[in-house]
Amino acid sequence: MPNYTYPIDEAWTTEEISTVVTFFSKIEQAYERGVNREALLAAYREFKEIVPSKMEEKQLDKQFSKVSGYAIYPTIKKAKEETAKTIKMTK
């Protein structure tokens, strides 16, 4: 478990929070040990159902990156552009 708090919107339901936390967890996995590309993209699609706004996504990415050192945008960009089964990021 990380020793920081995920950026969460208090208006989200418990299920939505769970979905967002799962997505943040996949981003962490991409940096720490690698993550299954399809699982990451599926988690991102579910995340986008909760956070459809690009502006809100950028704000969450900034908050998440500030506390974790991991970034959503380059991770998803790499997952969309590459065909490798596993996505591994470096800081």
From TrEMBL:
Signal peptide: none annotated. It comes from the Bacteria. InterPro entries: BH2638-like_sf (IPR023324), UPF0223 (IPR007920). Belongs to the UPF0223 family. This is UPF0223 protein SAMN04487984_0220. It comes from Aerococcus suis.
